[in-house]
Design goal:
Layout (H helix, E strand, L loop, with lengths): L3 H4 L3 E7 L6 H14 L3 E6 L15 H11 L6 E3 L12 H11 L4 E7 H6 L6 H7 L1 E5 L8 H7 L7 E4 L8 H9 L10 H10 L5
Parallel strand pairs: 1-2, 1-4, 2-3, 4-5, 5-6
Helix pairs in contact: 3-9, 4-6
C-alpha cells in the first residue's frame, strides 16, 4: 500500500548543471519533466565547481551563470533558482547537493533531471547508490546515446526502479556548442532565451 504521506508530498524537480550558458534545451527538458511527472516546482541549481569539469571547459564565472539561469527561468512560475551548490564549499558532488536540498525540503519527493549521457556515466559519479536513494531519476534521451540499463543496474542496484524516461523532443544542443558559436562570431538567437542572449552580449561572454 502506498504511503499516504509520501503520496501527498511536494514533487520537486532538481536540475543541476553548469548552465554555461542555459539554453532552450534545458527549459524544454524541465517543462516536459514538470508536465509528465506532475512536479510542483523545478529547481535549477547552477554548479559552482563540478568535479568532472575544469576550466577552460567552464567558461563563464559562477556569478554570470547564476544570473543567466535566473533570467532564463524568470517567466515560468514552476521554475525556481537554487543557490544550494553555489553557496557551499567544495568538493561539489551531486549527491551532497541532494542531501542539502533534502534538509531544505524534508517533505519533498525529489526527481533529478538528467540527460541520457549523464545516466550512462552515473556509475562514475560519487556515491551513486546513495544518490538514487535521495532522488528518482528523470531522464531525457539524447540522440545517439543508448545507456546499457543492464550494466547500470548491475553497477547501481535498484536504479531501474528509480528511473523515469521523459519524452522530451530530441534536441542535439549543448552549452559548449553555443559557447563555441559565440566565440566564432556566429548567431545563437533562438538557441538561448532572448534575456540570456542580451546578457551574454552586454557582458561579452564567451569571446575568445
Amino acid at each position: 500500500m502506498p504511503d499516504p504521506m509520501r503520496a501527498s508530498a511536494e514533487r520537486l524537480g532538481v536540475f543541476g548543471g553548469t548552465f554555461d550558458p542555459p539554453h532552450l534545451g534545458h527549459l524544454i527538458l524541465a517543462e516536459t519533466a514538470a508536465d509528465c511527472l506532475g512536479l510542483s516546482r523545478v529547481l535549477f541549481v547552477p554548479a559552482a565547481d563540478p568535479p568532472h569539469k575544469r576550466p577552460p571547459i567552464i567558461r563563464a564565472a559562477a556569478g554570470h551563470r547564476l544570473a543567466m539561469t535566473e533570467l532564463a527561468i524568470a517567466d515560468n512560475p514552476r521554475f525556481a533558482l537554487s543557490r544550494a551548490d553555489i553557496d557551499r564549499p567544495g568538493p561539489h558532488y551531486t549527491v551532497d547537493m541532494l542531501r542539502l536540498l533534502q534538509q531544505q525540503y524534508p517533505a519533498a519527493a525529489m526527481f533529478l533531471l538528467l540527460g541520457g549521457d549523464s545516466l550512462r556515466d552515473l556509475p562514475t559519479w560519487s556515491r551513486p547508490t546513495e544518490l538514487i536513494a535521495l532522488a528518482s531519476l528523470a531522464v531525457m534521451r539524447r540522440p545517439g546515446i543508448k545507456p546499457d540499463l543492464n550494466a547500470l543496474e548491475h553497477a547501481i542496484p535498484g536504479l531501474r526502479a528509480r528511473l523515469h524516461w521523459i519524452p522530451a523532443p530530441p534536441i542535439d544542443l549543448s552549452s559548449s556548442t553555443i559557447a563555441d558559436l559565440i566565440a566564432a562570431g556566429r548567431s545563437v538567437r533562438y538557441l538561448v532565451p532572448d534575456r540570456v542572449l542580451d546578457y551574454i552580449l552586454t557582458h561579452r561572454l564567451y569571446r575568445e
